[in-house]
DNA sequence: CTGAGACATCGACGGCTGTCTATCTGTGAC
DNA sequence: GTCACAGATAGACAGCCGTCGATGTCTCAG
């Protein structure tokens, strides 16, 4: 239900700056985090994320994204859906066009968890 | 050949603190990074990484890791191999036992790339 | 040399995933 | 209303992935 609203609820084990090295992950935590990484673990989706995240205004229209790949429109739509359902992209339909925006907070949490640089 | 030696060669586009939002990833960069995320995008491998990384001395024996899961020994061995070949784990055979050690540098690079927290 | 134990490799199998084409839905122009 | 266009959905199909049991390899003890 409210599952995708909670982007990363890591309890107390991984407080603020504790990456993987900060303590053994529980099975539950691992199964909560893995889907996020899985969503990101594809070259096309990685590029989509970076395209959206680095776009002017922080958002990008599907019509622009589709042209950046040698893939069919449904395939791009599929990848965007995966990223959206993982909670990494926000969707915003305006008229005929759909705009996607990166959830930078989710990305930051993930990045910190994987390996926050020294300190 | 020397492929797994270079953990993350991200050229100049993603200098030090530039995550996905720091500029569009090239197709080549994306295909270089995705395998690392793919290796990490599994609950068992996530837990393995965290177990190894948070072990005393920074390393863990396979014999200890196997007992932490309800999985067969070959399956654990397989996951460790995946992490090793991705360049996320170092292997060190000492006598009859094999010890794995986390490549914290690789983890840090990945974490920074995905989403370095503000600044 | 022989046996036991720690890991790795092999081959198989079911399920998931990325891609496509075809089609559906919704929005704005006329 | 009707047409064109943006995007999503559906169904199909090939290839990859996680898991297993069986077996192989290496190392040490005796």
Question: What is the topological layout?
Answer:
The structure is a homodimer of 119-residue chains.
Chain A: H1 27-40, H2 43-53, E1 59-61, H3 62-66, H4 73-85, E2 89-94, E3 97-102, H5 104-115
Helix pairs in contact in A: 2-4
Chain A binds a DNA duplex (30 and 30 nucleotides) through α3 and α4.
Summarize the structure.
The structure is a homodimer of 119-residue chains. Chain A has 119 residues and is α+β, with helices and mostly antiparallel strands. Chain A has five helices and three strands.
Primary descriptors:
alpha+beta; Arc Repressor Mutant, subunit A; elongated; about 120 residues; DNA-binding; 3 strands; homodimer; three-stranded antiparallel β-sheet
Structure write-up:
Two copies of one chain form a homodimer. Chain A has one domain: Winged helix-like DNA-binding domain superfamily/Winged helix DNA-binding domain (Arc Repressor Mutant, subunit A, Orthogonal Bundle). The first copy, chain A, has helices at residues 27-40, 43-53, 62-66, 73-85, 104-115; strands at 59-61, 89-94, 97-102. Chain A is α+β, with helices and mostly antiparallel strands and 119 residues long. In chain A, helix 2 crosses helix 4. In chain A, a hairpin with a 2-residue loop joins strand 2 (89-94) and strand 3. Chain A binds chain B through residues 19-25, 27, 30-31, 33-34, 37-38, 40-44, 46-47, 49-51, 53-54, 102, 104, 106-118, and chain B through 19-25, 27, 30-31, 33-35, 37-38, 40-44, 46-47, 49-51, 53-54, 102, 104, 106-118. Chain A binds a DNA duplex (30 and 30 nucleotides) through helix 3 and helix 4.
């Amino acid at each position: 239900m409210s599952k995708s609203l909670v982007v990363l609820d890591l309890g107390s084990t991984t407080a603020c700056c504790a990456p993987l090295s900060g303590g053994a992950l529980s099975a539950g935590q691992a199964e909560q985090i893995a889907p996020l990484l899985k969503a990101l673990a594809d070259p096309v989706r990685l590029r989509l994320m970076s395209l959206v995240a680095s776009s002017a205004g922080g958002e990008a229209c599907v019509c622009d994204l589709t042209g950046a790949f040698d893939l069919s429109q449904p395939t791009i739509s599929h990848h965007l859906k995966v990223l959206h359902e993982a909670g990494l992209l926000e969707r915003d339909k305006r008229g005929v066009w759909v705009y996607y925006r990166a959830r930078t907070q989710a990305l930051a949490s993930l990045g910190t968890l994987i390996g926050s640089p020294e300190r």
